[in-house]
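Attaching the record inline, Q. Sequence:
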Amino acid sequence: MIVRTTEEITGTDRDVSDGMWRSKRIVLAGDGVGFSFHETTIKSDAVCEFHYQHHVEAVWVVEGTGTLANLETGEQHKLSAGTMYLLDDHERHRLTCHDQLRMFCVFNPPVSGQEVHDETGAYPPPAA
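Structure, as predicted:
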């Protein structure tokens, strides 16, 4: 059994930020459960483009508002508490944050912990 709090993760190597977003990585690949689980916050007025070419991501919004744009189709969705989205086809997407977003995210395959987005908005492929 694994039990962790975000308080104990804060300020450790599981607490990763680029200034626009912050990801507290609660469950990682090294935990051996087949997925990773993160609490992510995105600052108000931030605009972030992502493209998880090597991962499927499910996101549950618990606070804030924003817009999710599928950069491949142009389709847009409003985000607010209670919204879930699933990037099941590795969609390139843009998050525009209106009021700070707080979300819980699941990645498969799991991330190892220190990944940051490359110039395409992707995390690197998982180590074999």
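Residues 37 and 106 are 5 Å apart (CA to CA). The two ends are 26 Å apart (CA to CA).

More tomorrow.
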